[in-house]
User: Fold this.
Amino acid sequence: MQKLIKNREIVQDNWVLLKELDANSDLDASIEGNVIVPLDYYLSHLDSLKGRQSKVAVWLDSHQDPKALKDHLDKLELVAINFPAFADGRGYSIARELSANLKFEGEIRAIGDVLRDQLFYMRRCGFNAFHMREDQDLEASLAVFDTFSDAYQSSVDQPIPLFRRRA
Amino acid sequence: MYRYDKYDHKMLEDRIAQFRDQTNRFLSGDLAGDEFLPLRLQNGLYVQRLAPMLRIAIPYGMLSSTQMRKLAFIADHYDKGYAHFTTRQNVQFNWPELADVPDILEHLAEVQMHAIQTSGNCIRNTTTDQYAGATDQEIADSRPYCEIIRQWSTFHPEFAYLPRKFKIAVCGTKTDQAATKVHDIGLFIERNEAGELGFRVLVGGGLGRTPVVGKEIKEFLPEKDLLSYLDAILRVYNREGRRDNKYKARIKILVKETGVDEFAAKVEQEWAELKDGPLTLTDEEIQRCKSYFQDPAYKDLDPEPAELTQALSTDVLFANWYQQNIASHKKAGYAIANICLKKTGVAPGDVTTAQMNFIADLADKYNFGEMRITHEQNIVFADVEKAALYELWQALKSQELHTDNLGLLTDIICCPGGDFCALANAKSIPIAESIQRQFDDPALLRDIGEISLNISGCMNACGHHHVGNIGILGVDKKGSEFYQVSLGGSIESDTSLGRIIGPAFAQEEIPTVISKIIEVFKSERQGEERFIDTYKRVGIDPFKAKVYAKAD
Assistant:
């Protein structure tokens, strides 16, 4: 099983990410355990997914709208957001919307082209789990969460902007 | 000027440590070039034709004498003894070594400067009117708001990987001097009927490949809502801006393709989530930022001192400089003085180390230790005693900094071009020089009067050629450098974009083409009309006819 960074620790990943899943196909019964399915698949298979023994989570691609999950968030404990390329910054806004606007309190996981130099900002936008790209050094990556001692903006990890806290 | 507190200092230190680590990892091969690229760009570091180029932020153009001396030190130790001031009120060094950059950043941090977000697909340096706080034409001083925006945009976690670069300008004066309408977001400070301050908000302006004048999406945004509204605009852009084509990725394309009303509605919807939240500015914060931009200790002075009157009547060269380079000040007995960095033969915006140190000393002596860099690539002393102007001019003259062409044909705005820039299609500095040499008669220049000439070496339009009364764009034509000429651009309140006059010209033809354009202007001109007004009255045809006329 793969490892990932979650809440600033290296942990075992106990989810299976189903990156490719045709909307017309049945979720293979042979895939056991907790699965992360694409958004479109999730929305079009709500009933059949209810029947699964194990847990189901959803992943969004960077062009997709998290509001589509509005009515389902209470049933989800994990939403993953894909970075097709590390320089595609849409995922940051998706995470913030999910967390700050839609009040999702579960795991928000970054998947795809996730590199250590982007983790600090990702965490500030609401990501709390990181499925790093294969070549990344997880131990070394843990250190970057302490890159900056403070921040000016309002963000998910510190909603009160610095100008309201300066002393 | 704004002064850093412990928070600002600490975050800057954190940033340097972060960049030192990233640079080391890149140099040791642990970080791939394409992954280092956006990281170094967000620290102002380009890899250019001859060497890396480091762009350092001068927030809204404000610079202290201490900072200027530090830039001179860097130019001496890490560059070839000069620096280049840019059209974004920043400064660039063209010859640093990549491995030295973290050290340069440490030197800069000692004087509260940095290179953060001076490049890359993120929110760039906010720009404003170089006369802010000193001019008698002001609704409110824009600088406190620029500083508020600077802090909000610095290390903004959500907007570091936008579809493309993002530029904000703030205008606090009645006549726009900051090209505000050709920015991704243009903020015009206004007062409503109740006397409260706020902003008229424009989006989607820009130059580059597709020049567009920004469109209004908010008639009056109360000042306290500034940051939540900016957050909302940026979020819509970050989510929906095009990422499939670099040339269609600026917000102007999104606004155009979405429609301005629909775009405004999307922003309103996003804003509804953020409005009245923690981003709402507090009175304390607005006052705190304003407190850094209080008037300096002005004295009560004679509005028309004898020293000035006498010098003006006895020294015609000084009188010329005074007429051209001085703007009126809100406080009687003071003046705004422009130091033109457009001496013929020197690349526009370039200054030597000696000149930088000299200007810093003059700022201490005559201008409360401060100066501003302008988007026209000049330097402004905003608070000079009128009685000291003659002395100041004499001092400037001793270092050949007394060029008296502000706003005239030879006050050319020009990007570094093909001599330095890897993006350029063509050289721009030699073009500027050839025009300056063609028009070397000061009397003729004054007779031509107010006119702007802008040169860009490529479509990216760093020389803002679209808004020059005369614009020159370097283009690549089958491997050789050609120049396209446009007329009628203007950054005034009624911002307009230039029209291309016709087929492009070879480099050596340009001075003659400009001469012909000026000849047409002189023959069509009524009274003391400015070039732009004559152009608007007669249109492009007479210019076209003359420039492309076949020789008999």
